[in-house]
Amino acid sequence: MDKHYLSPLFSPRSIVIFAGCDADSSPATVHAQLLVEHFKQGGFTGPLTYLDINTSGTLSDLVKSRVDLAIIALPEEQLSAALEVAGSIHCKAAMMISSGVRADLAKRLHDIASGYGMLLLGPNCMGFQRPNRQLNASILGRMTQKGATALVSQSGSVTTSILDWASSNGVGFSAVISLGAHTAVDIAQVLDFLAEDNSTHSIVVYLEGVKNARSFMSALRAAAVAKPVIILKAGRHHGGSHATSTHNGAMVASDDVFDAALKRAGAVRVQTFVQLFSAVKCLSARNLPVGGRLAIISNGGGPAMMAADWVHEVKLNVGTLSTEAATALQSQLSPLANVQDILDLDESADATHYRLAIEACANSPQIDGILVLLSPKPHLDIDRVSETLATLQPKINKPLITCWMGDDLVASGRSILNNASIPTYRTPEAAVDAFHNIASFYQNQQLLHQVPSSLSELAKPDIEGARILIENILTERRKVLTEMESKALLSSFHIPVTKTILARSANEAILVANQLGYPIALKIDSSDIVHKSEVRGVALNINHATGVRDTWIEMMAAVTRLKPDATINGITVQNMSGKPNGRELYIGVRTDEQFGPVISFGAGGTMIEVIADRALELPPLNQFLAHRLIDRVRSAEMLEAWRGAPATDRDALERILLRVSEMVCALPQLREMDINPLILDETGAVVVDARIVIEQHAPTRHHEHLAILPYPSDQESEWPMRDGNRYTVRPLHPHDADMLQTLVRNLSPESRYFRFISTMRELPERMLARFTLIDYDREMAMVAIYRERNTNPDGSIDVTERIIAVSRYVTNPDKSSCEFSLLVADEFNGQGLGSRMMQSIIDVARSKGLATMEGLVLAKNAGMLKLMRSLDFKIQIYEEDPDLKLCVRQL
Asked: Whole-prediction pTM value?
């Protein structure tokens, strides 16, 4: 309810330790010795008890106390027995500090914990640290400094290395959590906890693998709503590619898909350990950028040019002052200084010159971040410059990053910067990389806020016809569609294709060609041939019947010789595209084993693998995402006016990408797809060739095959009010934030207190983001939209929308129950709105397979309690707070 379910694990009020000792004897293992030593050093203020697995006398007392956390640091053969004891004394959570525990034993430990309803971190973990709570429940070394960045790592070695680096660089953490192999509490649950942890303002993750992509994406999106999340993933070039039947299946690696998933979740990925350190250092500072314009201030041209080169390399922009600001600054600097682009203060620059330049950049709306470079110069007081920055930093609301180049001469200056929590680096490139990583957070937030529907606003596709076609092919025990079948499937989603007819003899081909009109193309038709051109199975621009006959004979002979085992259905005859100015493009689909289907786009043609120009995006797409997908490839430049050819119809290309997204969402059987080439010119687009691979898909919940659930637009309905007006009930959308804030601001103080148990007058920014950018997989919020018609003085009519009610549920960790909330605008009470809104989320929760709905209501909120009784909720005493009532209903 208001306390996170992982609080007993990471914020325990009482702890029992199984270390094979009591408070006075020696621990049983090296791990236990380190753990006990950390607790003896003090810090934890709650009840702390040491137990042996054979303990009997104190069990009854411990059962009554209901200990939050049991920490187990015992030999492998004693782990099961210790966990049984922890369960017997009603511990809410357990943590196993161990190494080398096998998967079969880990599974047995998971089952024991699950049987007692206990959370289990481990086995094979090194524990966690919460510096703000003075809790070092780990074997990671001494307590790290306090900070606002949380570190989560799936490698103990990486964790200890980062902590060692952090101690000498002035970087602190709000939490350090080590997740080993086979842990029951996984990365998704930890992200979920940190998303709501008030002491954590940013999150850094070292990741080696993901068990459940859907839950990982759900938690990652929730965390990245308001907090920067930086991820370093190992195993980027790990093997595991499978046999494929399309270009896309062969070209798109799992790591490419992971990268696309992180961007779509609003997280930022770094590629190296050095970049991870840089990101941690930047995130420990106060401010995050809202754009990619980085001002460069330096006392030398060379380092500044190196930084500017790297700014362009990572696709950022050098931030510049306006002409007026540059002129004003120039008058206060050396005559040799140049501030029109890079702010080169000249070798004679001192601390005052640096202060003036930084203040000018801080006040400029054209600059998003400030990089200050310093090279040692004769007579330059480096410590004075560092102290000036330390004084300025609290007054600046933009990222301030430094690069003090050199070693001995700048060492004390770096120390001053570290103590002031100003990120400092040794090379210009590292400093720019650090800014790029945190600037990417802002860019990826734009992707995070895109919540498309499964269907676009284009004409409705023939989904039922497409399913019938797929079912018929599967009944024939085939997976690879012929070109004609592939184009028929595309046509059912209104994707334009060239006319294609199969001919089984040379004479049939001539008859078809005469009907279609010349010029025509001939292509071999065989599900056993992936790349037709490799077996001479494609002939273009045939202009007469003789050419059709001769080409038929030659093609059949060549294909039979080069691919003797292939089953050949015949040769297809189709019109040429009729687009002499057309650009050859490619659209593909591949199904990743973890993240499901992914859409790729890039340059097409026969050299597609060599060109390797592609970008990826997870479905569903909307126009913004389709536009961004096109812009991310190099070949996007040739879509404009290019080499005498007019600019292409990009809108037509975006519509096809939206149609492909519809296909992927509606057809879980779709495994792989190539559209290559797709010809695009100024008049539109047409698919010339396509190849689709399908497979049997067991019936699952709607859109279960997608890593990101689409906006559930099918749940919209309209309802009458008792006064004759009408309102629309629909799922909440991220764009509803302003309307939701207006609803809260207009509530009476009593209504706000009943809903939030708080006197706040509006939703804080993070809470507003959390309430509006939801994951439809684990929660649902329904809003009632009321349209007001207002007549203007000139007689025209304006229609404005407002939210007048919100109902919501969030799935609990047990995945079978959920917590509800309800809010109705004061002036719409008594209209039956509360009942309708509650019924809406009850219906959704039931359709998701949830069994129980529960929620807390203030005991003096008589109206809400009356509503709950009318909806068959049982009103129960809430033991933890007598001012609240627990309302429960079986679904």
From this structure: 0.81
